[in-house]
Amino acid sequence: MSRLPRLLGLFVACIVLLACNLPSLTPTPIPVIIYTPLAPSTPPPAPSGTPMPTPTIAHTTTPAEVHLSGPISYDVDSKGTAPEHRAPYGDSYKLNRFERPFTRQAMDYLPFLDIVRFRIIADATWYYVFVELNNSDVNNAELDPRYGVELDLDRDGHGDYLIWAAPPFSTTWSADHVQVFADRNHDTGGVSPDRSDAPYPGDGYETLIFDGGRGDDPDLAWVRIDPTAASVLQFAFKRTLVGSTFMWGVVADGGIKDPSKYYYNDRFTEEQAGSPEKNEKYYPIKEVYAVDNTCREAYGFTPTGYESLICPKEEPTPAPRTPRPRQPTATPTATKIIVY
Ligand SMILES: [Ca+2]
Ligand SMILES: [Ca+2]
Ligand SMILES: [Ca+2]
Ligand SMILES: [Ca+2]
């Protein structure tokens, strides 16, 4: 019993010692963290295999129900010579005019790229361009083709706008897969639109001014398959884009498909490009392949016939004159003057 007071004294001494050696135990406030759920800034990821919704473009003006009409312009039809793996004629590398609805080297025919006729009409708001092809496989999965309208506003042969449409195409007007490119630095066609300048390092149609409804005018350009003619593509574009006079042509492109490389005859030499005509030195087609384009037609004005890349017209047959006495060996030949 006598040890108890000593133990108590020792305990008190320890407490005092500890109190002297420990830092002062001033209470510090405990930070309070309140967790609140964050508002989702992005939608949750879609389950695998579910396509993400595409933003909806608000359209206010839609092209009308139009059907194949307007004055007909013709392009070369390669169907007849397709079994011989060649185009019949009409391909002019010098003029950047390609009749090449064929695969490279093998020259297998691609009828959905073969333009045979093209037309244009207009209403108060729109121009409508019709591109008639040799079959309806415009959604061809292997080549994923592009179709386009080239527009030359100041008639100098250097293209100013390219309306450019990609699959999938349907019979409903859509702007979703339509783009409009501009050539702001005026180098389509290189130094001269009437000849090759290859190798020419231009950037072609380099400025994208409309992309699936995104642009200053969300309704600027549209495309669809003609609901009554499956091998006809219809384009619609606003009159405000081009005014009332211009030169225009169309293109089907399942090969290079690059607006920044237009015109292709300025990017590739004739030897690199090849030729679709068997009597030409560089047959068959090589780097410039699976592409068909047309000459340019005048819209809204009477052409002189000397505009660059204009479609050739046969001059009216002159009225018959009083025949002069023939030389015995002379063979009469009909002369047709083609004006480029
Ligand atoms: Ca053709
Ligand atoms: Ca021009
Ligand atoms: Ca050129
Ligand atoms: Ca350019």
Tell me what the structure shows:
This protein has 340 residues and is mostly beta strands. It has a domain at 73-302. It is 9% helix and 22% strand. The chain is built from four helices and 16 strands. It has helices spanning 4-21, 239-242, 264-267, 270-273; strands at 73-74, 99-100, 115-122, 126-133, 146-152, 161-165, 178-182, 207-211, 214-215, 221-225, 232-238, 246-253, 291-293, 297-299, 313-314, 338-339. The strands form three sheets. Strands 2, 5, 6, 7, 8, 9, 12, 13 and 14 form a nine-stranded antiparallel sheet that branches. The protein has a five-stranded antiparallel sheet with strand order 1-3-4-11-10. The longest helix is centred in the first third of the chain and has 18 residues, at 4-21. The structure holds calcium ion (4 copies). One calcium ion binds at residues 152-154, 156, 158, 160.
> In percent, how much strand structure appears in the residues?
15-25%
Radius of gyration: 35 Å
Number of helical regions: 4
Low-confidence stretches: 10-46, 322-340
Structural class based on helices, strands and sheet pairing: mainly beta
Percent helix among the residues? under 10%
| Main pleated-sheet profile | 9 strands, antiparallel
Outline type: globular
Number of strands: 16
Distance between the termini: 132 Å
Instruction: Tell me the series of helices and strands, N- to C-terminal.
Output: HEEEEEEEEEEEHEHHEEEE
Q: What are the bound molecules?
A: calcium ion
Mean pLDDT: 85
